[in-house]
Amino acid sequence: MGLEEKLPGGVLVTTVEKIVNWSRKSSMWPATFGLACCAIEMMTTGAARYDFARFGMERFSATPRQADLMIVAGRVSQKMAPVLRQIYDQMPEPKWVLSMGVCASSGGMFNNYAIVQGVDHVVPVDMYLPGCPPRPEMLLDAVLKLHEKVMHEPLGPKRRAELAAAKADGTAKRYGTMPSSFRYDKTLRREWERAEAEGRAEQFRIETAARQNEAGVARK
């Protein structure tokens, strides 16, 4: 007989790590750091049509001391790099960085002396988002993948050591690879997990996208 059977109704049992990570990913406040045209798409994502508020992210913080996530939206100039680093250092731990758009990720079309060729030269990046500029749907997908990564972050030195050992052995599970559209469909989620275990996750994603496109064309 497990502990769950002895507890009264309405009581949930979980781990401290899961509840802490759930709290972190459910109230992730982005720092306002729009640098170029990608910032327009970021603002659109926060508006009513796409609604960041569904994920507890409606408050774009004007101060780095109350921000968890830095969305670097646009190209980073050499003059802006030290400012970006200073803002990152002022953000409290834990904190995450999302590189939005090809210019922030690799310099994009601006392959010259004035632009930093990738924001990861300045701050550590947790999630890269391609596109020029990426659409709001793509930003939402990247944020949901980051949420999945946060949900599985280790809490405490013992768990961090266990995760490091699993990565060294090659047995650590990769998170953030599931398409966001699969996450809330139980059937697709189960099929994705089965395909991932069999090593054909990418093939399953392509086949599913093709079926969905065919269904959309048929409805039209």
Describe this structure in words.
The chain contains ten helices and four strands. It has 220 residues and is an alpha/beta fold. It has two domains: 11-152, Rossmann fold (3-Layer(aba) Sandwich); 177-218. The protein has a four-stranded parallel β-sheet. Helix 2 packs antiparallel against helix 6 (136-151) and helix 9 (186-197) runs antiparallel to helix 10. The radius of gyration is 20 Å and the shape is globular. It starts with a helix and ends with a helix.
Put simply, the count of helices is 10
Mean pLDDT: 80
Radius of gyration: 20 Å
Give the strand content.
5-15%
Major sheet? 4 strands, parallel
CATH topology of the largest domain: Rossmann fold
Cofactor: [4Fe-4S] cluster
Binding site for [4Fe-4S] cluster: 37-38, 103, 132
GO biological process, one term: electron transport coupled proton transport
GO molecular function: 4 iron, 4 sulfur cluster binding; iron ion binding; NADH dehydrogenase (quinone) (non-electrogenic) activity; NADH dehydrogenase (ubiquinone) activity; quinone binding
Describe the protein's topology:
Layout: H1 3-6, H2 16-26, E1 30-31, H3 38-46, E2 69-73, H4 81-90, E3 96-100, H5 102-106, E4 127-129, H6 136-151, H7 157-169, H8 180-183, H9 186-197, H10 201-219
Parallel strand pairs: 1-2, 2-3, 3-4
Helix pairs in contact: 2-6, 3-6, 9-10
Write a compact overview of the structure shown:
It holds the Pfam family Oxidored_q6. This protein is an alpha/beta fold and 220 residues long.
